[in-house]
Amino acid sequence: MWVWLNGHTWAQRQCERLGIGYTALDNGFRDCDDPAALQKICDRLGSGAVKSFFWRWQRRLPSPLTREDVRAGYVYELAFRQFEISDTRVFDRPAAGRSFFEQLIRDHLDVGRPESVSLIFDRRITRRTPGTWRTKVITKGVDPQISCYYRSSRIKQYFKEHRALRTETVICDTRDFGIGRRVTADNWKALRAVGEKANQRLCDAQAADARPAPDVATFTQVTRPSQIDGQHAPGLPFGDPRVMAVLAAVIGFTHLLAGFDNPALVLAVTTLLACPYTSRQATYDLRRLKRKGLIVRLSGHHRYQLTPLGRRVAVLFTKVYGRVLAPGLAELDPRLPTDLA
User: Fold this and answer.
1) Hey, what CATH class is 216-330 in?
2) 47, 75, 131, 233: which has the highest count of C-beta atoms within 10 A?
3) Domains of the chain, residue spans
């Protein structure tokens, strides 16, 4: 037996009962007369409300369990099949919001490197529909969507109803994050924390990408060898193929969900380099990234995440190299065909 519950609809019904005015957004809220009260309502939603809903309606449905079975202790046990946590940010100037998100799309294509940057058309697409139905052109009737995957879970982002930036973390297997599947208060809180942190990290990372580039002193400190806390920190030379590949790999938005480790770095860098990249080289690169303050190790794990400084440096290096240096050098090379230069 599967049960679907929509938290936004539930919250809207609670607002109506309390007489709190709101303007609905498709599966969300556009605005509310009492945001603080709305937040308290959303915080109330938990495993208890889910179980109450289930048992209230289960009595009306046929069941293979008899009264004797129930008295003997045989009852239904609810488990999470999918858990979604969303973050909706409504723009007071929708046109500016649309422009902002289109710029995010561009950054994700050559900086974020998500597994999927697709456009959702206003038509139903089935298995029989020919073609891949993906494009880089954003036109009327087409809504861009960014999706990044981690195991069986994903985080996606899109512009809802032309005025709100919606970020959603969809957890399809709770065990991807070491959380049990049973619908309990502890598991609910843990899943909500995972989703909220993932949504916030993505939004924070995008905000950091829009910040001004690091100053010259920081650039020198990163690219040249230095001593930090008494430890030698090798430099990360700008333009070095291996350094650029490593920075392009660690900046991936997929890593916002659970960080990255040595094997993940090896796999990502190998796809970007034209030469072999070993686990030993990854260990060395992780060490110098950490000593430069560009990454931090997650507590209790052999996994890492970019620091705010690390993301700013990686964004600067990757954008300048891919959008300025490489195209500029191509134009200066007389041996390249005109259409390539």
Assistant:
1) mainly alpha
2) 233
3) 81-210, 216-330
